[in-house]
Amino acid sequence: MHEMSIALSIVETLEAKAREEGAGRISGIDLVIGKLAGIEPESLKFCFSAAAKGTLVEEAVLVIEEPEGLGECGECGRKFPVSFYYAECPGCRSLRVKIVSGEEFLIQSITIEDQEGE
Amino acid sequence: MCDTCGCSSEGGAVLRKPGLNDYHVHISESGHTHEHTHEHGHHHQGKSRTLVLEQDVLHKNNLLAERNRGYFEARNIFVLNFLSSPGSGKTSFLEKIIPALQHLVPVAVIEGDQQTTNDAERIQALGVPVIQINTGSGCHLDALMVNSAFKELELQNNSLLCIENVGNLVCPAMFDLGEALKVVIISVTEGDDKPLKYPNMFHEADLCILNKIDLLPFVDFDAGKCRENAMRVNHHLEWFEVSAKTGEGLDVWQEWIKNKLKQH
Questions:
Q1: Bridge-partner residues for A31, per DSSP?
Q2: How far apart are CA A48 and CA A58, in angstroms?
Q3: CB B205 within 8 A of CB B238
Q4: Quick check: B5 pLDDT over 50?
Q5: DSSP category for residue A115
Q6: How far apart are CA B254 and CA B100, in angstroms?
Q7: CB–CB contact B3 A27 (8 Å)
């Protein structure tokens, strides 16, 4: 369950960012979690709601984009979609496949609500 | 809040030393305050704007891991991160190799477990510096825990530091600690398809040690097949077959580590 510690670290990072920006709260978070990143998006969402309680990100809507894995064959150079690390090149059957994308795990952007003078 | 499990701070990671019951250090970032704001329940309709961050979620851990790595490099400390399921024989392996390496290079150990100093006590019996990280409900070590732990160990220059991670084939794969190499241990009492079931770990590892090969005649475990599975996930993986109990195969691994220490 590393998703919990990750959720807490996202909340902590974004709270600091919100304060830095003088924001009242964060209303939206866009995450990019590659299919090969080793993160379960559903589990992260679940943990996030617990981690965000009582913080400036409590009401933020979490949108997760999940790019597919992409492999590149070390023999013939062909690029093709992969869903596992043990991919085989569909062209030459080589197992020398390098993962070129799908391992991303990024906070892409956030939407912040500026505080109005009270 | 504990940064690992969300429980109260008493549940956070703690450093312990075997035999020193009073020694107890809570791991926390200096100056880290977990301020929680409890503003009134409604929100004023202000302006909203979007900020593009493109920030790696594990950024903080990775930065600290690089700091650890820089410290280790400057002092020429070769660091191995040992990973496996619980019960694959990480501690038994260390108990066997440390006495053989001790006369070549100073060795120190960081032990990671949810609870107890049992493993640290076993290592301490070998006469090497050791510290235990108890992660509480945490399922992996992170760079901050290791950073706090090695400050409490008197590490020597030109030495070997073995970090035994929490027994878990999933979460520890994601957290860089600043090690030189990741070593995954698997034992013949597990399934030979484990590399396919837990590909992230085998993909991240630099070498794989198959342990308990003295039990091969008694179990349905195909070592060749396991190796093949591991290589499918990671074709750069170096492969060793040993028995920490009988010592079989350990000479090959010791040769390997001696060469590594020379190159390092």
A1: A64, A107
A2: 9
A3: no
A4: no
A5: P
A6: 8
A7: no
Indicate the pairing of strand B130-134 with strand A69-73. unpaired
CB-CB: which of B3, B36, B48 is closest to A5? Answer: B3
CB distance B57–A107 less than 8 Å?
yes
Q: Which domain holds residue B205?
A: 59-263
Say what the pLDDT of residue A118 is.
44
CATH number of the domain within which B224 lies: 3.40.50.300
| Tokens linked to B51 | 């900020």
> What does residue B79 show for φ and ψ, rounded to 5 degrees?
-115, 125
Cβ burial B108-126 (10 Å sphere, 16+ → b, else e): bbbbbbbeebebbebbbee
pLDDT tens-place string over residues B119-148 = 999 999 999 999 999 998 788 999 999 999
Is B51 close to A118, i.e. CB distance below 8 A?
no
Task: Please determine, for the modelled complex, whether the ipTM score is greater than 0.95.
Answer: no
Whether B50 is in a domain gets the answer no
**B106 in a domain, yes or no?**
yes
A72 pLDDT above the threshold of 90: yes
Question: Per the domain annotation, does B164 fall within a domain?
Answer: yes
A-interface mutation test, from B27, B48, B140, most A Cβ less than 10 A away:
B48
Closest by CA to B50, choosing from A109, A61, A31, A92, is A109
Residue B24, classified by CB atoms within 10 Å of its CB into exposed (0-12), middle (13-18) or buried (19+), is exposed
Which residue of chain A is at minimal alpha-carbon distance from B61? A9
3-state SS of B26-51 is ECCCCCCCCCCCCCCCCCCCCCEEEE
Residue with tokens 């100093």: B117
Specify the residue for token string 């484990």. B194
Evaluate whether residue B200 is within a structural domain: yes
pLDDT band of residue A99 (cuts 50, 70, 90) is confident
Q: How many domains are contained in chain B?
A: 1
Mean pLDDT of chain A: 89
B40 close to B155: Cβ distance less than 8 angstroms: no
